Amino acid sequence: MTTRFGLDTALFSVKAYAAAILAVYIALSIGLDRPYWAFLTSYIVAQPLAGAVVSKAVFRVMGTFVGAAVAVIMVPPLVHAPELLTLAIGSWLAICVFISLLDRTPRAYASVLAGYTAVLIVLPSVDTPQLIFTTAALRVQEITIGILCGSFVHALVLPQSVSAFLLHRVSTILADAERWSGDSLHIEVDPAVDRERRRLALDVTELHQLSIHLPYESTRIAPRIRTVRALQDQLSLIMPLGAAVADRIAQLHESGGGPVEVATLLADTRDWFSRLDSMDIARRSEEAEALRARCAALEPQVGEGASWHDLILLSLLSRLATLIGAHRDCRDLAEQLASPTTRPVSGRTAALLEGRRGRELHLDFGGAIRGALSAFITIVVGCVMWIYSGWHDGGTAIMLAGVFTALFASAPDPLAPLRSFFVGTFIATLLGMLYGFVILPRLDGYLEFAAAMAPMLLILGMLMQSPRFGGIAVPLLLGLGTPVLVADRYVGGFAGYMNGSLAQLTGILYAIVMIRLLSSTGAEGAIRRTLRAGWMDIAERSNLMAPPDVRAWINRMLDRIAQLAPRLAMAGRSPGKPLYDALRDLRTGIAIGELRELRLGMSPERSAPLTAVLRRVGEYYRSLVPDRPAPADPELLHDIDLALDAVLRDKDREVSRAGALGLVSLRRNIFPDAAPIAASTITPASQVPA
Questions:
Q1: Cβ atoms of 546 and 452 closer than 8 Å
Q2: d(CA 315, CA 338)
Q3: Burial state string for 311-338 with b = 16 or more CB within 10 A and e = fewer than 16
Q4: Pairwise CA distance, residues 418 & 404, whole Å
Q5: Where does 255-364 have alpha helices with state H?
Q6: If you count Cβ atoms within 10 Å of the first and of the last residue's Cβ in the chain, which end, N or C, has fewer?
């Protein structure tokens, strides 16, 4: 997002420092007694992209107000019943975590914040319940000042545009996708191409996250979200289509190769992919239609007696034509994104934008319940230990543990950022001692304070943008925002400072222990749930009689693939086979959709072989176990071949063509190692009357 330690990084650091110092100045000017909340918040909302910082600020304001209101409602009636108050605050945090884990967009930040803001207000107020409203009002003011200062500085002072960044990412993603598709058209495909192609799932997810910030853009007319959604739909087609085309080319080569015209078509398509970024919309559309027309002209007429070679050739040319169209549409939509007006750049683009809606995502209810229970147990067990220990600052430890449990509930590996937070907080404790008891006592006034803090804050602000050092820099910055360092007067008090620092470190350690105990199988469990969700989705889709929603299926499966990659890495497992299997399942779901669509227009008698196949496919996927996925029953292969024979004998040539495409795809996806259909099963083409 930024050039490490370059001009953009330095600019971000200066703006973050200016926002923090401005927030402290305003808080002190209006007499707030805890300006460090404003200081901390300004750094928490800091983002290099203007739209992102504004959207995060909006979500944070919403969450802060809701959390403060809940705290005010909760404390007075329950303050004399600590057990009930503990259950109430733990339940509220659990509900907020549950909602945020199901949202899975930047909006989820509002839910998380509503949960832990209540924790931040309730736990320190148990000794002074009569002041709960005043405490909540002050926290809201302090936090809002930090939000507004961060938003103002980052959004208005030399802002970096979300729109510009999104357009740059789209350009990079399209160039990569076109290169991968071109490489897929070779007979011998480099295995790295398949691995790289799977990155598209992560790219589509990134575009979805960025699009949430577009309405808050401040630097230009932002692209419309529905255009991004339409682009995501077309990008989502490229990965399964590219894999299918590569598979059919390999199959065609094994069965003796294709006509010379097909080899020429593949070479011309590779050349077209390589020139896409330099063509205008008219030429791009003209050449795409010419290539698609050549695909249609070379398609063999399949029917009773079609050979396996012809079926593979038909599948290759049909998928290739669709792949060409998807790439053309991606480029058109990219131009639409960059257009300063909302007028469609082409008639095709207008059709793609029609009726666009939100992107369908995978919802992990099991993971959301697990995260909510972890937050609840962390708060309840921690409060019990705090009450019976008699440690006054123990509330700070439990408060931080609740915050971290909520913040990192959605992380693939929550222990990694917590370890970084512990190290960063420990270093911040040592730096705080230097500032609080050596430097600050020699200063006089706000300006000297700002000047003394500048070197450390500017350095840490730059390190925030470094993938290598950001995990330490962020807790270091937050650790420096303590009451001893950021206050309306010099506080001092070494014992109090050390006690507070010890509470912070204890809270992080407690969160690490609880997450390790409660989420020891979290990554493996998430992998199993994600794989199982895809299989159950296929099983349910196989037996439906309604028109298929292929777009929704592709979106959900790509989202699952995007979630699997980091979890597999965290679990120490090679991502190759699970991700390959998920991609195969994606293509299987598309083939099922094609067969369901075909079945809708057929009588029950004509569609009986397809119904048998779909039923058996559903049974197979419903029976799969993530730890020991069994191979498909050979009876399913036999049913697929019988259904293929039946559709090829159908008198309607469109039924033969559509059925062949869906069944060949299903056969190649579920039985990739099966031998081609024997001549005894399908009559050789030479015996078909002219």
A1: no
A2: 35
A3: bbbbbbbbbbbbbbbbbbbbbbbbebbe
A4: 8
A5: 260-275, 281-298, 308-338, 347-353
A6: C
C-alpha 356/C-alpha 369 separation (Å) is 31
Using the structure block, give the residue that is written with the tokens 């909760």. Answer: 74
Token representation of residue 255 = 């069965």
User: Can you tell me the distance from the alpha carbon of 597 to that of 626, in angstroms, rounded to the nearest whole number?
Assistant: 29
Identify the residue whose tokens are 């229970």: 373
Instruction: Retrieve residue 39's tokens.
Output: 């200081």
Residue with tokens 């609840």: 376
Q: Where are the domains of the chain?
A: 7-160+362-518, 162-353, 522-687
Q: For residue 276, how many C-alpha atoms fall within 13 Å in the half-sphere facing its CB?
A: 30
Rounded to a whole number of angstroms, the CA Rg of the chain reads: 30
- Specify the pLDDT at position 252: 87
Give the span between the Cα atoms of 554 and 538, in whole angstroms: 11
Which DSSP category does 342 fall into? S
The confidence score (pLDDT) of residue 223 equals: 64
Output the six-digit token pair for 363. 């919802």
Structure tokens at 379: 């708060």
pLDDT of residue 576: 57
Topology given in CATH for the domain delimited by 162-353: Methane Monooxygenase Hydroxylase; Chain G, domain 1 (1.20.58)
- CA pair distance 488, 493, nearest whole angstrom: 15
What's the predicted TM-score (pTM) here?
0.79
How far apart are alpha carbons 569 and 445 in whole angstroms?
50
**3-class secondary structure, 686:** helix
Q: Which residues contact 173 (CB under 8 A, 6 or more apart)?
A: 200, 203, 207, 235
Q: What stretch of H or E contains 600?
A: helix 576-600
CA distance from start to end of the chain: 62
The confidence score (pLDDT) of residue 443 equals 87
- E strand or H helix at 227: helix 225-254
Closest Cα partner for 69 from 115, 129, 101, 130?
115
The token pair that represents 380 in the structure block: 């309840």
Could you tell me the CA-to-CA distances from 37 to 20, 65, 142, 540, 644 in Å, in that order? 10, 15, 6, 50, 68
Mention every residue, 6+ apart, whose C-beta is less than 8 A from residue 443. 449, 452
Whole-angstrom distance, CA of residue 614 vs CA of residue 608? 10
DSSP state of 123: G
Contact assessment for residue 647 and residue 634, using Cβ atoms and an 8 Å cutoff? no
What distance in Å separates the CA atoms of residue 339 and residue 342, rounded to the nearest whole number?
7
Contacts of 219 (CB under 8 A, 6+ apart): 50, 159, 161, 163, 164
pLDDT averaged per 10 residues, the chain (length 690):
64 92 93 88 80 75 92 90 91 94 81 90 84 90 91 79 81 90 79 68 77 64 74 86 89 82 94 92 93 94 86 94 94 87 79 71 84 92 87 85 85 82 91 90 89 92 84 86 82 83 92 81 74 90 85 84 74 62 87 92 90 93 84 91 92 91 93 74 38
Compute the distance between CA of residue 149 and CA of residue 556 in angstroms, rounded to an integer: 38
Label residues 491-520 b or e (16+ Cβ within 10 Å = b): eeeeeebeebbebbbbbbebbbebbeebbe
Are 197 and 180 in contact by the 8 Å Cβ rule? The answer is yes
Identity of the amino acid at 206: E
